[in-house]
Amino acid sequence: MFAARRALSGAIQARAFSASARDLSKVTVLGAAGGIGQPLSLLLKLNPRVSDLARVAADISHINTKSKVTGYEPTPSGLASALKGAEIVLIPAGVPRKPGMTRDDLFNTNASIVRDLAKAAAESAPDANILVISNPVNSTVPIVAEIFKKAGVYNPKRLFGVTTLDVVRASRFVSEIKSTDPVDEKIVVVGGHSGVTIVPLFSQSSHPDLVGNPELLQRVQFGGDEVVKAKDGAGSATLSMAMAGARFAESLLKAAQGVKGVVEPTFVDSPLYKDQGVEFFASKVELGPNGVEKILDVGKIDATEQKLLDAALGDLKKNIVKGVSFVAENP
Ligand code: NAD
Ligand code: LMR
């Protein structure tokens, strides 16, 4: 099943592109030389499903996995080559936070970076699954959607905001409190990817007593700030994000190869709260060969969680509108 050839490609300079692909599919990382991009590319190289890599060639190419390594120049033609034929495009390009900043403070810089990369993807990889990591995710995902719509190639089943890190954190933080193995802590996290838009649903876990635990809620909603503070001006989460991004890419690859029942949390064009004007929402999503197979309902939640969800929806709506307006005003 995994015999097909794949390639990972990238560039050597700061603005780097990296891709991995099999004969009929290819995975591209835009921003491959960054704090996230480097370890993410490493994890993709270590993935046994990937047999052919093209990236920061001299270094990663020495790793003795089957994949072949190639590099792309950070130029428009290099970008087009990295994207051409890609089945998965991961975008961790853009600036990270410094202490005292919110993710929304990154909007002014990252919105145009993501817009321009989305334009290139719409042209060179219109059918790819686009995985947006660049913050603020609640706004950058709508930006990609708008660009794809303008290009006439938007497929809502193939656009994902990567919120996996929120679920990874929730699982880890709960395991620390309960002295359990995080592998067994499947915590549903819905909403978006910033502050109060991150809503963990402990009522649906095996520890409903954790609903209303203020310290835990704070950690899950503001876990990113913990890392920003610890790095003290040197950026935000990179290694845990690389792990989370690699997990999401692996899930998509598995689902594309026919594995059934692959479910990941992700921020997608979602029907769940469209009646409240919220066009994108993170919830559990079943993945398949066509990308989004099924968007799962939020399900039964506690009254305390409902209040958190209401607050999240208010912020989300504004964040989404901001992304949409940006493209309208800065096409
Ligand atoms: P970084 O500064 O270390 O790396 C960013 C990379 O993007 C650099 O290599 C830079 O050269 C490149 N880049 C900048 N402009 C580009 C362009 N126009 N085209 C291509 N590449 C470009 O930052 P990082 O720590 O890797 O973080 C990247 C982004 O990911 C930030 O916006 C950060 O907030 C976000 N992030 C998201 C999550 C999440 O859960 N979704 C988690 C952590 C970080
Ligand atoms: C995170 O959750 O770690 C990322 O979104 C980066 C950040 O700015 O917190």
Could you please describe the fold and organization of this structure?
- The chain is of the alpha/beta class and 331 residues long.
- Helix content is 40%, strand content 18%.
- The strands form three sheets. Strands 1, 2, 3, 4, 5, 6, 7 and 8 form an eight-stranded mixed β-sheet that branches.
- It is globular.
- The protein starts with 6 loop residues before the first strand and ends with a helix.
- The N terminus is likely disordered.
| Intertermini distance | 42 Å
Integer average pLDDT: 89
Q: Share of helix among residues?
A: 25-40%
Give helix and strand order, one letter per element, not per position. Answer: EEEHEHEHEHEHEHEEHHHEEEH
Question: Which consecutive residue ranges, at least 5 long each, have pLDDT under 50?
Answer: 1-16, 20-24, 51-55
Mass-distribution shape: globular
Give the structural class: alpha/beta
Based on CA atoms alone, the radius of gyration comes out at 19 Å
> How many E strands?
13
Approximately what portion of the residues adopt beta-strand conformation?
15-25%
**Helical run tally:** 10
Bound molecules: nicotinamide-adenine-dinucleotide, (2S)-2-hydroxybutanedioic acid
What does the largest sheet look like?
8 strands, mixed
